[in-house]
């Protein structure tokens, strides 16, 4: 039995114990409301005029009904697993889809948009939904929710909901490192400070809009993404050390900013999920977790599917079974890897539920 198969039941037992601890309802939080980029987008970009879409195969080929929903994955996102673990039978709908209406709104909604990020200008250039606009859509959602649930119930859903934010990877991988207009002007440190200040104002505004339990993912080991290894890893084996240490220093700043926000609001719970370490552990010791391939994604060459348009039904060489791959395309983890990240989110986020 490997580490992973021992670990998963432990997480479930932990959550079941919590679930029996006095909650009458069958989900541990009333709703899940998500913001961010392609790590979290469940199909909002299908409704935008942007290149950054995943609503065609092979995306979704291991999802329910093999449907390409717009998730940048062969199967489920980490946040899908999180929703399941918390007792949800359905996933909160992509807010721009027609499913985000009526009673479906009661379990939350997803506002995330692939190629969005903390850098608002880059999000606009990518025709993604910038975080500021995601927040405006959330405010519109609150009004709709009040119509469906009544004001009092809506207020309690908004207060007790779990809010998730996953962003930042695209700011570095699809913007900073490849865009000389940015990386010749700002040092990594300066750009990180800029992104973290955008994070702070987003969280403050989200708090202002009623959120009280917020979980935010850190940056993963960006230097281990197949695309980053292909573009920047010529002279070293394994991951790109410089870029991993950039990610770690960003994560430190993110944690410091969160600590300072927490000092201002005694009724806020805010957790930064460390996804760097768990993903790095998997990449360093893949066989312990049942993986074989860590350096290239399953789809196509799996090396520089830069804008993701290169991972499509006509891409030759796509692997037949992604279960032993850590990455599905050159940037995004597989269903199997997301499951491991999700277990970490639950363990680290217990104080939120
Ligand atoms: C993929 O491989 C795993 C074992 O490595 C197996 O359990 C699973 O059924 C395979 N899936 C498909 C679709 O062939």
TrEMBL record:
GO terms for cellular component: apoplast. Keywords: Signal. GO terms for molecular function: hydrolase activity, acting on ester bonds. This is GDSL esterase/lipase APG. The keyword Signal applies. Residues 1-24 form the signal peptide. It comes from Ficus carica. Belongs to the 'GDSL' lipolytic enzyme family. InterPro entries: GDSL, GDSL_lipolytic_enzyme, SGNH_hydro_sf, SGNH_plant_lipase-like. PANTHER family: GDSL ESTERASE/LIPASE EXL3, GDSL ESTERASE_LIPASE APG.
């Amino acid at each position: 039995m490997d580490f992973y198969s021992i670990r998963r039941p432990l997480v479930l037992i932990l959550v079941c114990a919590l679930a029996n601890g006095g909650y009458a309802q069958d989900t541990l939080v009333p709703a899940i409301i998500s913001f961010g980029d392609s790590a979290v987008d469940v199909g909002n970009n299908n409704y935008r005029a942007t290149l950054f879409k995943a609503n065609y195969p092979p995306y979704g080929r291991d999802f329910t009904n093999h449907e390409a929903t717009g998730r940048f994955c062969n199967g489920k996102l980490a946040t899908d697993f999180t929703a399941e673990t918390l007792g949800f039978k359905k996933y909160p709908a992509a807010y721009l889809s027609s499913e985000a209406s009526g009673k479906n709104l009661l379990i939350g909604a997803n506002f995330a948009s692939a190629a969005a990020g903390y850098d608002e200008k880059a999000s606009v250039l990518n025709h993604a939904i910038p975080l500021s606009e995601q927040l405006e859509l959330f405010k519109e959602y609150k009004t709709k929710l009040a119509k469906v649930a009544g004001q009092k119930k809506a207020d309690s859903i908004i207060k007790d909901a779990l809010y998730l934010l996953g962003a930042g990877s695209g700011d570095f991988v699809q913007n900073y490192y490849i865009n000389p207009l940015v990386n010749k002007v700002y040092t990594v440190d300066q750009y990180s400070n800029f992104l973290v200040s955008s994070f702070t104002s987003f969280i403050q505004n989200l708090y202002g809009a009623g959120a009280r339990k917020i979980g935010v993912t850190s940056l993963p080991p960006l230097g281990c993404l197949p695309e980053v290894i292909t573009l920047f890893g010529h002279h070293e084996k394994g991951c790109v050390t410089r870029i991993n240490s950039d990610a770690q220093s960003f994560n430190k700043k993110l944690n410091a900013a969160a600590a300072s926000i927490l000092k201002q609001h005694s009724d806020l719970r805010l957790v930064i999920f460390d996804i760097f370490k768990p993903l790095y552990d998997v990449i360093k010791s893949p066989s312990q977790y049942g993986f074989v391939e860590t350096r290239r994604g399953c789809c196509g060459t799996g090396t520089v599917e830069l804008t993701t348009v290169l991972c499509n039904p006509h891409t030759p060489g796509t692997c037949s079974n992604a279960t032993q791959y850590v990455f599905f395309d050159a940037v995004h983890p597989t269903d199997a890897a997301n499951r491991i990240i999700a277990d970490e989110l639950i363990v680290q986020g217990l104080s939120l539920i």
